[in-house]
């Protein structure tokens, strides 16, 4: 009887000690987790100067500055946040790869201006309202996308301003994306209408369409080419966010939701998505960073106010987001280990 009591007592003590140890571990882990703060930006640009609806922000090609556009075009130091200069105009814009000039399209006129001085270098006229623009990496060709039925794109000689080619998209009413690849071999045109979208890849040599990128869903909001010229990212409303190979039909898809803006890292190893409250996930004021190969969510960034622009720095170690009248720069250097971009097996449509 005594022995049984002692055994029961020791067993009870053992259980009590085990429970105490478990609770202590749980408490410590919970405490550590609660101290895990969300990522904080390393720099905020434009607070008190930019409008809350500032929609465009992008790193310059050398990564040393950030350009923003709303009612005027402003250039900021990407390290200190200091306002450096302004360039006249607002609307559809694009930077030359050498970082020396900027295209600014508003209404029916596109202007090329020198960034350092703001001097006008060339003008290009469109018969329809300009929605997008792009310039080739060798500064020889300019694309203008227009809002019109049918959706239309004009290709110009960048030096003379002469119109070279015209592309029409029957059944579609607006151009949402025009961009040249950095290797200079191709450009893309994305056109949209509520019930249909298209994205074509065109040769810069023949000026003919090389292939068609499948998009899917309603409303194509935008498209972008990775700096290594190997992948094309597309996004929109009720839409697969997709990263496609340039040369074949293989692709990866990510969030199937309302994504209002997106960017692909220079080496195509990551994608950054600017989400919207009206999507299924209702992720207001949030950007999500994904591993392009695995689809794993690597990080999320929260910012004040609705955001409409995201971008990677040219070296891939930082990202920027816009929201609440400011540009926020975030450090992701701990995620940028060199990795080979693999070819993908084709993913099925939803």
Describe the structure.
This protein has about 350 residues and is mostly beta strands. The protein is about 10% helix and about 45% strand. It has 1 helix and 28 strands. The termini are far apart. The model is unreliable at about 1-35 and about 340-350 (pLDDT under 50).
Could you name the key traits of this structure?
four-stranded antiparallel β-sheet, 1 helix, disordered N terminus, 350 residues, mainly beta, globular
Number of strands: 28
* Global outline: globular
Radius of gyration: 25 Å
**Neighbour order of strands in the largest sheet:** 1-28-27-26
Helix content: under 10%
Number of helices: 1
Low-confidence stretches: 1-35, 338-350
Q: Average pLDDT value?
A: 82
| Helix and strand composition category | mainly beta
Hey, roughly how much beta strand do the residues contain? Answer: over 45%
Order of helices and strands: HEEEEEEEEEEEEEEEEEEEEEEEEEEEE
N→C terminal distance: 69 Å
Please outline the major beta sheet: 4 strands, antiparallel
